[in-house]
């Protein structure tokens, strides 16, 4: 089912949580709402579910305006960050809840309920825990029960609020890959909220990046990562180095500027797009001092400082690191392999 | 055996604190109660049976247990309602209402008894009205129940209130998204969650009503076989210098009450099995 938000705004007191947001979600898509905390992403999710009423604007589900509908009539599966399981019920009863509370006419028979619940529990690989209580489960298991429970009512849309937010890093990675696989199997239109850019880029079909109640950019993970439209997006999706360079009239960018020539230009560079050389050259013109080296990880992270005292960050391969024999407090020269610039940057 | 008693704790002074706890409990609770039992064992079984199972005593138990049960039921229902309103709704002067709930704790029970007796008596505001409709409260079991309800009311509210406050709104929201109506949410989600505290409130309210003496004797009329409560019978026996009879009835009451409380605690334990204690 497709979802469309048109001019949705929501205020809490004087705080503008969502500021005139419009976007649409395609049928069968897995969409990530990404942004820092307070950017309004959870509020949007709750507005889609009907748990929060928008001050203005409408929510359209498959052509039907549901803005005034109660959440129980929308047929939306919602998975909460802290699972919100019914702790006095077994895992089985939790998943069966949505079926048992249906009006008598629509309620499946007992054997049907049992079959559907057990099918769902095996889908989330928890059938062996059916008769345990939520308190006896690990965080990852609870989250999967919450997912099975939301899927039991065969929702047209699945909404997940920071689904992996309270899990430890390893379980988190495992579970998000598993969610991606699950989505490819069942194809339910899904929206999940996260503040973790890695998670959003890895799992989703498209990403909506939000900041201060507004949408900064919508696009596939590749689009937003490789062609960010605003400095915020660029900065939010990874580490950034900012250079105050100058652009000459022939279009050339000069990093060690002669203040009299060209116009000032802010240059954004990812740490892995910085090269390090021991000698000054045309390609490596920027002198800097190594402050700190961290070799643990797939890339060597090097913190540096330029002549003006600005901190810089470079990621290089371990092979390169060994070739250059880099040490702390060493003088090196940096080059920029590729960079981003933005027109009309407001106060950045 | 050792394992049951000793579990490593981060609190220092395990032995000392356990010793103090046991000593304190023994001094405050066990010692006074055990003297009662010792006193009873000085007599013969026949004496004990005739004291405990006399018709007057049996009727007194019936009045005490029966009316305590009734008042605990009523208090659980209305205590729940009051707690619900105080926690869930925005009401004017909330602090005032909140303080009012605890008042029966603080009021000398004799004051409560005299006030209630006047209020429900033939000259009282409520009593005169009821009397005109042929309804008598004072000196009847209804009067006893009203006094019991009055003194034990705070227990019911104060045990439910914190649990209602702690209910996670997300749990109700998820039930709503799953299609549950308000009534179903209450019935299947909220009620089972607060049931343990409701039972605790019931237990405390019941125990308090059983032991209540001061307020009840004013309103009860204290007619043997009709409106005489067990605690009063104990005092009557004392005044007749029948110390043995008095102690026997006390021991009997104590034992029955203890068994009842124990049963309720077992129900509680079973009820909380989902917390992973079993």
Strand and helix layout:
The complex is a heterodimer of chains A (348) and B (278).
Chain A: E1 3-12, E2 15-25, E3 30-34, H1 41-49, E4 56-61, E5 64-65, H2 71-74, E6 76-79, H3 91-100, H4 110-123, H5 139-152, E7 157-161, H6 169-186, E8 189-194, H7 197-203, E9 206-211, E10 214-219, H8 221-226, H9 231-236, E11 241-247, E12 253-254, E13 263-269, E14 274-277, E15 286-294, E16 300-306, E17 311-316, H10 318-324, E18 331-336
Parallel strand pairs in A: 3-8, 3-9, 6-7, 7-8
Antiparallel strand pairs in A: 1-2, 1-4, 4-5, 9-10, 11-12, 11-13, 14-18, 15-16, 15-18, 16-17
Helix pairs in contact in A: 3-4, 3-5, 4-5
Chain B: H1 2-5, H2 14-41, H3 45-52, H4 55-88, H5 94-106, H6 109-120, H7 125-132, H8 141-166, H9 169-177, H10 182-211, H11 216-220, H12 230-239, H13 243-271
Q: How confident is the prediction overall: mean pLDDT of chain A?
A: 90
Main sheet strand line-up of chain A: 6-7-8-3-9-10
What is the CATH first-level class name of the domain at 57-242 in chain B? Mainly Alpha
The backbone outline of chain A, from C-alpha atoms, is elongated
User: What does the oligomeric state look like here?
Assistant: heterodimer
What's the architecture of the domain at 57-242 in chain B in CATH terms? Orthogonal Bundle
Tally the helices of chain B: 13
> Which fold name corresponds to the CATH topology of the domain at 57-242 in chain B?
MetI-like fold
CATH architecture of the largest domain in chain A: 3-Layer(aba) Sandwich
**Regions of chain B with pLDDT < 50 over 5+ consecutive residues?**
none
Total beta strands of chain B: 0
Average predicted local confidence, pLDDT of chain B: 88
- The third-level CATH topology of the largest domain in chain A is Rossmann fold
Instruction: Supply the CATH superfamily name of the largest domain in chain A.
Output: P-loop containing nucleotide triphosphate hydrolases
| Beta-strand share of residues of chain A | 25-35%
Count of DSSP helices of chain A?
A: 10
Q: Mind describing the biggest β-sheet of chain A?
A: 6 strands, mixed
């Amino acid at each position: 089912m497709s979802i469309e938000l048109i001019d949705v705004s929501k205020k809490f007191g004087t705080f503008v949580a969502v500021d005139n947001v419009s976007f649409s979600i395609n049928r069968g898509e897995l969409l990530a709402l990404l942004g820092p905390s307070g950017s309004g992403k959870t509020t949007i999710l709750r507005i889609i579910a009907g748990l929060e009423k928008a001050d203005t604007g409408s929510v359209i589900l498959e052509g039907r305006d549901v803005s005034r509908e109660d959440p129980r009539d929308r047929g939306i599966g919602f998975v909460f960050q802290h699972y919100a399981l019914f702790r006095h019920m077994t895992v089985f009863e939790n998943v069966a809840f949505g079926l048992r509370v249906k009006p008598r006419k629509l309620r499946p028979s007992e054997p049907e309920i049992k079959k559907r619940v057990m099918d769902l529990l095996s889908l989330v690989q928890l059938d062996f825990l059916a008769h345990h209580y939520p308190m006896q489960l690990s965080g990852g298991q609870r989250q999967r029960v919450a997912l099975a429970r939301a899927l039991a009512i065969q929702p047209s849309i699945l909404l997940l609020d920071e689904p992996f937010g309270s899990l430890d890093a390893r379980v988190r990675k495992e579970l998000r890959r598993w969610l991606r696989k699950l989505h490819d199997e069942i194809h339910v239109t899904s929206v999940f909220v996260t503040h973790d850019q890695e998670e959003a880029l890895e799992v989703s079909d498209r990403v909506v990046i939000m900041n201060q109640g507004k949408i900064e950019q919508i696009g596939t993970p590749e689009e937003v990562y490789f062609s960010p439209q605003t400095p915020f997006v660029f900065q939010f999706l990874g580490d950034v180095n900012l250079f105050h360079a100058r652009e000459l009239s022939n279009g050339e960018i000069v990093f060690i500027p002669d203040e009299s020539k060209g116009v000032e230009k802010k240059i954004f560079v990812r740490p892995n797009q910085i090269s390090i050389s021991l000698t000054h050259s045309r390609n490596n013109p920027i002198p800097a001092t190594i402050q700190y080296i961290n070799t643990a990880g797939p890339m060597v992270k090097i913190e540096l400082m330029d002549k003006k005292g600005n901190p810089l960050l470079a990621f290089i391969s371990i092979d390169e690191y060994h070739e250059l024999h880099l040490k702390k407090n060493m003088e090196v020269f940096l080059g920029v392999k590729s960079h981003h610039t933005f027109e009309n940057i407001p106060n950045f | 055996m050792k394992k049951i008693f000793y579990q490593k704790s981060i609190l220092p002074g395990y032995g000392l604190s356990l010793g103090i706890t046991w000593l304190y409990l023994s001094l405050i609770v066990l010692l006074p109660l055990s003297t009662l039992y010792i006193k009873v064992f000085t007599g013969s079984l026949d004496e004990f049976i005739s004291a405990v199972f006399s018709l007057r005593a049996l009727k007194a138990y019936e009045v005490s247990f029966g009316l305590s049960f009734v008042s605990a039921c009523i208090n659980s229902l209305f205590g729940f309602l009051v707690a619900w309103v105080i926690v869930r709704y925005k009401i004017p002067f909330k602090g005032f209402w909140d303080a009012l709930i605890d008042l029966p704790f603080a009021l000398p029970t004799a004051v409560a008894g005299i006030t209630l007796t006047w209020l429900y008596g033939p000259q009282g505001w409520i009593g005169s009205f009821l009397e005109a409709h042929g309804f008598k409260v004072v000196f009847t079991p209804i009067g006893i129940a009203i006094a019991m309800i009055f003194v034990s009311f705070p227990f019911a509210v104060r045990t439910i209130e914190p649990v209602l406050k702690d209910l996670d709104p997300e749990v109700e929201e998820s039930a709503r998204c799953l299609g549950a109506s308000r009534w179903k949410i209450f019935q299947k989600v909220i009620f089972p969650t607060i049931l343990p505290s409701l039972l605790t409130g019931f237990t405390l309210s019941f125990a308090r009503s059983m032991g209540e003496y001061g307020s009840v004797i004013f309103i009860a009329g204290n007619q043997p076989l009709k409106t005489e409560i067990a605690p009063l019978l104990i005092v009557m026996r004392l005044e007749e210098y029948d110390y043995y009879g008095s102690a026997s009835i006390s021991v009997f009451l104590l034992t029955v009450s203890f068994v009842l409380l124990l049963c309720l605690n077992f129900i509680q334990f079973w009820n909380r099995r989902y917390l992973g204690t079993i």
